[in-house]
Amino acid sequence: MSAELLVRPFDDADTDGVWRILEPIIRAGETYTLPSGWDRGDGLGYWLDASHQVFVAERGGAVVGTYYLHVNQRGGGGHVANCAYATAADAQGAGVGRAMCAHSLDEARRSGFEAMQFNFVVSTNERASALWRKFGFDVVGTLPGAFRHPRQGLVDAYVMFRRL
After folding, report:
1. What is the pTM of this model?
2. Packed helices 15-28 and 40-47: angle between N→C axes, nearest 10 degrees
3. What CATH number should be reported for the domain holding residue 10?
4. Which of 48, 63, 64, 69 could form a disulfide with 53 if both were Cys (CB 3.0 to 4.6 A apart)?
């Protein structure tokens, strides 16, 4: 029987676990618009930015996923949240992304947001876009050829949205 999955706020003791997840994602350059040459300081500096509420998914004492929640835009757009998610390669397909998405929707509501928007979902990231659709997100825009995939060349990116 596998250990229970817990999604909780990040603390400094999680730093190594978060980097273990982020580094291969950054290096692959397939899902985030982050420079593949970023080092630990750059990657963690971005993910753990002071404007982000950062969470981790933990199973059996190991960090297997992480996400951040923040305001998508300021001022008149301040009622819309944005999130980014990352799952450890060895935990993909085990419900980690699903648990983090559910948690993030609850956290966004608790934080007073009225909607959530994903600004740039790479179209080749089919697993993620399918999961977001299951959670009620709609593709409200397609950005043709907006992402330079390292193997597939120019691919589309989606803007996805849902009310809370």
Report:
1. 0.94
2. 110
3. 3.40.630.30
4. 69
